[in-house]
From TrEMBL:
Cross-referenced SUPFAM superfamilies: NAD(P)-binding Rossmann-fold domains
Protein name: NAD(P)-dependent dehydrogenase, short-chain alcohol dehydrogenase family
GO molecular function: oxidoreductase activity
Record-linked CDD domains: SDR_c
Length: 255
């Protein structure tokens, strides 16, 4: 069951918006009345989503953006503010996984790609979002880390490293801006039913079987369940919550 939020008159930005957790969060923000700025590298999927939201009567601005490119991120935030006048909430969700490999066997190119999107991309998004929110004196940011930011794991060193880094960025920024009316938190999803996890289940079956055994709730999470956590962290209901990491993991990290 979804909890209802009222974000009427507010502006939310979502990266990696065209699929998975970003898509669910986008629909949830729009359903709660927010104007939504959606970004992704998949222009066709982004425009399809924008058409869907507009047809339902929502305010939406699609912006193609590669979060690994700081200039594109700066333009994303500039366009959001130009269109809607402010930026109240941001869900920095865009991320990728590397090709599974022991660290000695991982390529530099793959490492740079993962870190560029998962860690530097979050840093770039926060940098430009925070500059705007600081001018406003208000705002809420949620970064997408992972249970891989809380524990270690085999054959995914750059991914786990990037997600640990997201938590470090989140905690540091939260301390910098706690007295300026801006809250910054992270969600740490476990195994969620997304296209990325579907690929992992197909390509890394044995490893995923072992992973799922530790998800004591006995099922995959849903993207809507992660979206509800994101919306709560952005809402007034979480007004005293900043600098935290919220595991949405079906008890995985309780092991």
């Amino acid at each position: 069951m979804n909890v209802s939020y009222d974000f009427s008159g507010q502006v939310a930005l979502v990266t990696g918006a065209s699929a998975g957790m970003g898509l669910a969060a986008t629909r949830a923000f729009a359903g709660a009345g927010a104007a939504v700025v959606i970004s992704d590298i998949d222009e066709a999927a982004l425009n399809t989503l924008a058409d869907e939201l507009k047809a339902a009567g929502h305010q939406v601005l699609p912006v193609v953006c590669d979060v690994a490119d700081d200039d594109q991120v700066a333009a994303l935030v500039e366009q959001a503010v130009a269109a809607f006048g402010k930026l109240d909430m941001a869900y920095n969700n865009a991320g990728v996984q590397p090709i599974p490999a022991e660290m000695a066997d991982q390529s530099l190119d793959d490492y740079e790609r993962v870190m560029g999107i998962n860690l530097r991309g979050v840093w770039s998004c926060m940098r430009h979002e925070l500059a705007q929110m600081r001018r406003q004196g208000s705002g809420a940011i949620v970064n997408c880390s992972s249970v891989g930011g809380l524990v270690g794991g085999r054959a995914l060193g750059s991914y786990y490293g990037s997600k640990h880094g997201v938590i470090g960025l989140t905690k540091t920024a939260a301390m910098d801006y706690a007295d300026q009316g801006i809250r910054i938190n992270a969600v740490c999803p476990g195994a969620i039913s997304t296209p990325m996890v579907a690929r992992m289940l197909e390509e890394q079956k044995e490893a995923m079987d072992e992973f799922l055994k530790l998800q004591a709730i006995g099922r995959l999470g849903t993207t809507d369940e992660v979206a509800q956590a994101v919306l709560w962290l952005c809402s007034d209901g979480a007004s005293f919550v900043t600098g935290t990491t919220l595991a949405v993991d079906g008890c995985f990290t309780a092991n």
